[in-house]
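Regression test case RT-17, inverse folding.

Input:
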């Protein structure tokens, strides 16, 4: 499983489409899945097992549950012990996580522009707080053994329209993931 984590509006869906296209070009078709807001009855140990296959690209997963849970529900449905067990399972299954975030000033400017013409589920301040939480995780924690960090701030500075991914980065992620899977 290849997991793409990050707040709303950072380009996860765009990156996933580009990763799936690149992987398919290399003979390894991948299936995008979205792990959005789940019902309280969701069991991370039972229900998520169907998703752990090497051809899945997951738009959000347990890290998003922890971060968004704190903001939207005053707490995650994953306790620390369960989180460690899930990390261990992801490592065993050779999952790889890509965390996407941006520097706060860039992100706040970008989010503000997005809110001018999009009706988002979350408030601008919440999304900025989520981005800040992902930045903190990138700086202080390792989610699983195989993690790549991606700062979207450079995209616009390189005359690319956002959302867009750096083609070299897409190739690097796919190549790293395929090596990890032994392909």
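Golden output:
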């Amino acid at each position: 499983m290849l997991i793409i984590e990050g707040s709303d509006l950072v380009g996860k869906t765009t990156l996933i489409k580009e990763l799936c296209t690149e992987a398919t070009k290399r003979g390894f078709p991948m299936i995008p899945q979205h792990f959005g807001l789940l019902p309280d009855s969701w069991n991370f140990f039972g229900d998520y097992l169907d998703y752990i296959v090497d051809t899945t690209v997951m738009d959000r997963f347990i890290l998003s549950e922890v971060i968004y849970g704190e903001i939207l529900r005053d707490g995650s449905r994953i306790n620390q012990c369960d989180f460690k067990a899930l990390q261990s399972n992801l490592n065993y299954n050779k999952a790889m996580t890509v965390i996407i975030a941006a520097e706060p000033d860039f992100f706040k400017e970008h989010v503000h522009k997005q809110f001018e013409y999009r009706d988002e589920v979350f408030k601008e301040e919440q999304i900025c707080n989520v981005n800040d939480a992902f930045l903190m995780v990138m700086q202080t924690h390792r989610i699983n053994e195989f993690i790549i960090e991606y700062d979207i701030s450079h995209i616009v500075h390189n005359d690319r329209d956002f959302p867009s991914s750096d083609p070299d980065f897409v190739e690097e992620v796919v190549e790293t993931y395929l090596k990890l899977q032994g392909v």
